[in-house]
Amino acid sequence: MPTSNSHLPAHGDVHGHGSHDTIDGSNENTALLPSFLRGEVEHEGESGRHGFHPRHFCSVTYKSSNIVSQYVNFLWPFVPLAIIFRYTLPNHPLLIFGFAYVGMIPSANLLGFAGQEFAKKLPKVAGTLIETTFGSLVEIILFVVLIVKHREPVEGEDEGNGDEGNLIPIIQAAILGSILTNLLLCLGLCFFMGGLRKTTQKFHSAISETGNGLLLVAAFGLLIPSAFYSALKGETTFGKSSLGFVILKDKFTPETLQRDILKISQVTSVVLIIAFGCYLLFNAKSQHSVFHEVIEMDEHRDLDREDDQARMRYTGTETTIALTISLTLATLLLIYLVEQIEAVVHSGVPDQFLGLILLPLVEKAAEHLTAIDEAYDGVINVALFHCLGPSIQTALFNGPLVVIVGWILNKPMDLNFEIFMIVLVVLGILVVGNFLRDGESNWLEGALLVIVYVIIAIASWYYPNPDVATSNGLEGLAVSAGQNHVTIDKALLKDLLMMANQDA
Question: So what's the pLDDT on residue 319?
Fold first, then answer.
């Protein structure tokens, strides 16, 4: 026995684990983040094979990461059908939109699963961050395709809405809808499904407090342009109109306000992206990462840990192929979706419902399935990270990124959101923060979060399109004069009518 014990340090030196108990006092629960700096790879991600094996690749893809994802694979026929209908039935836009929408689910699921496989070949924190990033790639692609397809109205036309090529309101709704979908629907389902298996689930305050704090900061950054616009929209004046009258006041016109809002949004977007970089740097470089020990501890509590370890995995080559296929198909289907948006809105689906509910549901499908499965397996901290992490990335990176892309393309994408939607996001963050405060979750809290999301979905269905009404636009009245249109402040119009009656 003494002889065998004497060999333990050498064994630990080779594998980087057990022997360090006697050297520096660490154990298996000690944060392993320094391994990120040394480039070590977690053994859980090894497949034991090399290269590409078609049968094995198809088998791993079909079985996916959990039973729900496996059932999602039965939706793959919608992908080729959507592509076929796009070219054979171009006059049926709703059919193309429907098949492309459903086809996005298995494509996003494959992207999420391939991201998981890639993440397991990396240290835990870096892997989790990269997995979240892959889950958000669909969203980034969607935002970029939407801003590229956005069509500015020609001179003399109103801005219109989605059925007239104005996609900016839909992008703005999709940014906030993505945050709401993660915080209310996804987190609610995680609490609900986890509560069905365990009466209560405890999560670490490091994730809940840090995540909620970052979301509040992000919401503050997104709120500033809208608050600026709301505070000053009543102070704008109109220049000489086609009706022949002139308002003699300082030249703070609606055009000036819109130009200022655009500049504020662009600079704010740069600052928010810098904040996101600080968030990544903190988690990647800090020797005491906020999330690492929590994730490590959760892995040991995973109720399906043995099954997950026994599951077949992709090789590095197969992971790359899966990522390439899923990204290509997802991009193609998103282009088909955006192409049909005008027809969908024209058919009666409101802009806000499309952006706030429908698009976030499909773009986040893979992330939601992963988080719900983890919560059901008892890995609530990791599930919580998958709910808060994408919300943080959307608010600090994805949303600001599309503003910068619009800046480059000379398209007026700004962060002047509808006050209605901003209020929803802020209240949603506060509600979730209240539920996270006690460090425990149960199925009732999850059900309540889902109910709140359903109420928001109902309200968004009845919310008017931008060409009908807006909660953050200039309070005026449109008046026609021949071929020209001019917007007049209601109070001013009332005074002008009174003056006309006195002269008469």
Answer: 85
* Chain centre distance of CA 60: 27
Contact 224, 486 (CB under 8 A): no
Q: Where are the alpha helices (DSSP H) in 286-340?
A: 292-301, 305-310, 316-339
The two beta strands, 440-441 and 201-202, are antiparallel
Which pLDDT score, from 0 to 100, does residue 294 have? 64
Q: Which residues of the chain have pLDDT under 70?
A: 1-51, 65, 121-129, 131-132, 153-164, 235-251, 284-311, 466-504
Report how far apart, in Å, the C-alpha atoms of 23 and of each of 6, 8, 9, 17, 484 are.
14, 12, 9, 11, 82
β-sheet bridge partners, residue 489: 476
Rounded CA separation 220/255 (Å): 25
Is residue 457 within 8 A of residue 353, CB to CB? The reply is yes
Torsion of Cα atoms, 74 then 75 then 81 then 85, to 10°: 160
Q: Which two tokens stand for residue 161?
A: 């809405």
CA dihedral defined by 18, 19, 24, 28, rounded to 10 degrees? 0
Q: For residue 388, what are the contacts with CB-CB under 8 A and spacing of at least 6? A: 182, 183, 187, 207, 208, 211, 212, 214, 215
Cα–Cα distance between 482 and 260 in angstroms, integer? 31
CB 184 within 8 A of CB 456: yes
Supply the pTM of this predicted model. 0.78
What type of residue is 195?
G
Tokens of 128: 């989790």
**The dihedral sign for the CA sequence 52, 58, 62, 63:** negative
The pLDDT of residue 223: 87
Q: d(Cα 245, Cα 223) in Å, to the nearest integer?
A: 36
Task: Please report the pLDDT score of residue 23 as a whole number.
Answer: 38
Q: How far apart are the first and last CA of the chain?
A: 114
**Cα distance between residue 302 and residue 211, in whole Å:** 22
Cβ contacts of residue 90 below 8 Å, gap of 6+? 96
**Residues linked to residue 484 through DSSP beta bridges, in sequence order:** 481
Phi, psi of 478, deg, nearest 5: -80, 130
Centroid of chain to Cα 59: 30
Q: Tokens for 246?
A: 């002139």
**Amino acid 201: pLDDT:** 86
Tokens at residue 456, please?
A: 């928001």
The pair of three-digit structure tokens given for residue 383, joined into one six-digit string: 């599930």
Q: What is the largest CA-CA distance in the chain?
A: 114
Question: 3-class SS at 241?
Answer: coil
Place of tokens 């809808």: 177
